[in-house]
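fyi for ur records
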Amino acid sequence: MKLPTLISLPLLGSLALPGLAAPVTYDSIYTPLNGPPCVGLDGNEEEGWASGSCPGTGGYSLLWSEVDIRQSLDVVAPDGSIHPLELWSVVSPNFSALGHLAEWRVRKTGSGHTPVGLIVRYNVNENPEQPEQVTSYLVVSKLNGPEICVTAVIRPHTGANAEARRQAEHSALQTCRLIR
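which gave:
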């Protein structure tokens, strides 16, 4: 009579183990958006445009572009496909500049990590008559296989960085923002 009990307890224990799986954890990896190791690719100062490339993480990299004092980013996926984020259309058409760092939200996986979201600061001159007035948005993009796009634009407020990280961690479930 005790033998079936001994056999069933390990069986019940093994069925319960999947429910005890460790929670998903996230971390941030920061990469520069200007200066070394970024490199200029092309440009024409007289015409007011330039482009360059910056390293990312997990096989991703970034291409930046500037046209008429407006900047934007393209994400280059590990497979080499290029995904324009169109920040100058999705966030604001006004004069703009990228922040100094890209924050990659990564899901920890065993001994490595998988990028799931990207956060960049996007500084916009909302009033051309007062160039010193700049709004510093946090722009969240999802890195979800073939669907890489902006999913959230967060205005400055207390807790904005934490909100951007949460948004990036769950960005795969969000829809892409449309061009304004």
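Strands lie at 26-32, 39-44, 49-55, 61-67, 70-76, 82-84, 96-109, 112-125, 134-144, 147-154. thats all i got for now
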